[in-house]
Amino acid sequence: MPPENDLPDGIHFGLDEDLYHELPMISAHDVKQLLISGPDYCEHSHMNTEPDEEPEEDTFHRILGRAYHTRILEGSESFAARFADKFECPKDALDTNDELKDELRKRDLAVGGNKKDLIARLLADDPRTKIKAVLEADYLKQHDGKDFLDHKYIRRIHRAAAMIECHPGIRKCFLGGFPEVTVIWTSDGVRRRARLDYLKPAAITDLKSFANKFGKPVNEAITLAFANAKHHIQAEYYTDAAHAAVGHAKDGKITVHSGAAPTKEWLDLLASRQGDHEFFFVFQKTDGAPVARHKSFQCPGMRGAARRQINEAIATYKQFIEVFGNDTPWVDITELEDFHDEDFPPWAA
């Protein structure tokens, strides 16, 4: 078995998300970076061995996004195994040294020593004594390895999941398949990767969030969010991944890293798929009511544009790899260009 950061082509079930993001292969996100510039891709790729430290706010939003995906794609049991409420201390629990000493005096016990001594003396007298440090340590031990979120976020995550689970149409988008399926394949000499939110033998579902800070009608807000994020590129790229997955299923290139394994019947259905997978987006609003709507993505014009953009990005990748390789920072070597009057918007003058 090759090292985890150099997995073989195939379908990978239950691959750790952090390991997935370390894979040195082109993803849909990488395509979008390459469309900006070669150096932008290099900056955000595995080739940058000393990336800028992620801001705390970005780290929090990444964890929060992972929590939403876990609850909606994998269910409440998986969510409870990975996330928990932040510890909240009971109001009547003792905390400061002064509070501990006051309680000791009430029991006619000695008040000397450090905080650890004070706590030990109180617990020896009555193991039921509520002490913040003890309660918090027990709580953290009980939830070891989990990410902690404020209760308000966990409450909203469950509300968001209910919006999907109670919708007769949307709920079907997350039935009959597997969540967070990684597909690795090689096309035109370039190794590629995709992590499909939910894969069925004949369909892909991609879960997206959107904000509506300008108070637009929901469908209009979804369309604007779609266009701004260039989700059409991801849909076309994931369609390529699904085609690769069909071939992998035929060839038996299946690896189960954790969780449930697909049945032979399920893999046979995938292997027999003809043509493109159906593609569904599920959009959920992050502000106000967590409204969820699902959209089937056909749009031959948008998909054609995505195909051209993917080809352009791969061509850029190949060009920079040929010039700079994997071990040298990529430099934009575009030659001198002229500005033209028509390049500027009317308001600039």
Short description:
The protein has 13 helices and nine strands.
Describe the structure.
The protein has 13 helices and nine strands. With 349 residues, the chain is an alpha/beta fold. It has a domain at 10-56 and 168-324: Lambda Exonuclease, Chain A, CATH 3.90.320.10. Strand 8 (278-285) and strand 9 (292-296) form a beta hairpin. Helix 2 (28-36) packs across helix 11.
Overall average residue pLDDT: 94
Beta-strand percent range: 15-25%
Our Rg estimate from Cα atoms comes to 26 Å
CATH class of the domain at 10-56 and 168-324: Alpha Beta
Largest β-sheet summary: 7 strands, mixed
SS-derived structural category = alpha/beta
Examine the coordinates and then state which fold CATH places here, giving the name of the CATH topology of the domain at 10-56 and 168-324: Lambda Exonuclease, Chain A
Annotation, overall tally of beta strands: 9
Total helical elements: 13
Q: Portion of residues in helices?
A: 40-55%
**What is the CATH architecture descriptor of the domain at 10-56 and 168-324?**
Alpha-Beta Complex
The neighbouring-strand order within the major sheet is 7-1-4-5-6-8-9
Low-confidence stretches: none
Q: Which H/E pattern describes the elements?
A: EHHHHHEHHHEHEEEHHEHEEH
Distance between the termini: 61 Å
Global shape: globular
